[in-house]
């Protein structure tokens, strides 16, 4: 159908600009109304009912007058916006667009006594246009979700006292304090305290990052356990989060190639058909003295034949059929343009955490150093059971149903680890740095071997020795390697772009067989990578799940979000959502897209060929109005719809290994 998202947004999305900007992001407030609750749905339901009753009256009961009145009511109700746009385009922009042609064809249909045709044309056109507009409304809501990430107030230290201040009133150089569990309100530098900070909303890193004096922190990230004093370095409208908001807005304003093509097409098609019909009605009578009524009838038949109803629905009916089939297979596609775009994709770019991996840490290795692996894991789990850290949860989970040991005097050492007393002896579980500060010798070679595999190593020991190592890693999805391999067989290049460190990214890339990777990226860097890939290869699809992926999702030719665990922002910003977090849907999506476009081409060729043939036969009088309506419009429209319904037979196939189970832990770990 016609991609006129600006018009559709202007109809359904009410944008209210306030004098006050969002202090967290530095952008104006937006308010969107639910498309499905709009009056347009009620209008379509009412006009569809009137049309159905009218058809029953005319063809079932032969009540011609009541039927014509119902057809007029249908056209008036569902065609009001259509007529307004067509007339407005003619008067103010001096352009004859497809809206005007649809309106003129409908009027002509009523004029020659075929009101059912005019009403049906307008109704089908308005329904198809509505379905196309839904994605535009959904996309606008991503900005609101982004703005909610950062708190609206900050705790600022002024004149030795702490006070709550709106973030928009905090200036660079001031010091804000952030307590455990609170969000960091503004970008800044730590000037006091140590804590681990969850940066996933901004950088996508799978593990919390230890922040201490001199380290940079970002608005919208979460302080886990320590008390931080942060010197603000950027105003609220200059923060990393505000950059993400602007990147999303800019990407969403870009017009699709299909929209531009339809705009150009309508400039020539509509006036050509109208002037041809006028010529057919007048030239034979004025120049050659032929009967005016006869050629007026032929002109109206030509107008009905040329009415682009079947041609206009040839694309959306196939697209809707494909999107409906995709929804049944767990893939949400937010607009037909993305069905078209995905078939042209040459490169798939993937975020790592939550996309190629599950975003959930698991224990992969337990190494005993003079102690059994079971003992190392049990003591570590007993200590970590009192911690809320993601690594702690993974260690406790790995211990399974084992009975944990009693601990005393538990203490968290901010940014380093935890400690407690077990059976009268002090034990520590934490980082390499913790044990070096205790002057305990660390088994560097064993640790580095594990870290070179992209794993995070936790040391377990006493104040005298390290008794073991535990390695944890973000779990790779069962379908990841098979999906990457399948895309490779289809000639698709795969690239991983992640905020994680170089060693982790390299290890994951090698394990799953991805073609290329880029590590340690911030959101704007991910956008840069997507733009570089677009320049080099053409169409690029971005697959991600986090808020930090939103700008890259919006900038890519097609943005694909992992649905169930995806952030609201990425889900709204993306063009396609994998509702079951199943990467094996990507090869299915490629197949569906190519078959959908094949049917679209078949429908378009059939529409043009049949309409062109009937149009040529109008001049010698071989096509009657009945034939024009029955074959050239209604019959052709039905054939187009039936052809499109074949798409529902396409099914996705799972790439999950037949006996997929929990990954085996190396070195004899017991669960």
Total number of strands = 22
For the sheet with most strands, the description reads: 7 strands, mixed
Q: What proportion strand? A: 15-25%
How many distinct helices?
A: 24
pLDDT averaged residue by residue: 77
| Rg of Cα set | 32 Å
The dominant shape is elongated
Please identify the oligomeric state: single chain
Largest sheet: spatial strand order: 10-22-21-20-11-18-19
**Distance between the ends:** 56 Å
Query: Which percent bin holds the helix content?
Result: 40-55%
Which structural class do the helices and strands define? alpha+beta
Q: How many domain units?
A: 4
Low-confidence stretches: 1-33, 134-140, 658-671
What does this structure look like?
This protein is 50% helix and 17% strand. α10 runs antiparallel to α23. The longest helix has 34 residues, at 585-618. The protein has 671 residues and is an alpha+beta fold. The chain starts with a helix and ends in a 27-residue tail after the last helix. The protein folds into four domains: 1-150 and 259-265, no CATH class; 153-238, Calcium-transporting ATPase, cytoplasmic transduction domain A, CATH 2.70.150.10; 329-357 and 477-591, Rossmann fold, CATH 3.40.50; 360-475, Calcium-transporting ATPase, cytoplasmic domain N (3-Layer(aba) Sandwich), CATH 3.40.1110.10. The radius of gyration is 32 Å and the shape is elongated. The strands form four sheets. It has a seven-stranded mixed beta sheet with strand order 10-22-21-20-11-18-19, sandwiched between helices.
Main attributes of the structure:
Calcium-transporting ATPase, cytoplasmic transduction domain A, Rossmann fold, single chain, alpha+beta, 24 helices, six-stranded antiparallel beta sheet, disordered C terminus, 22 strands
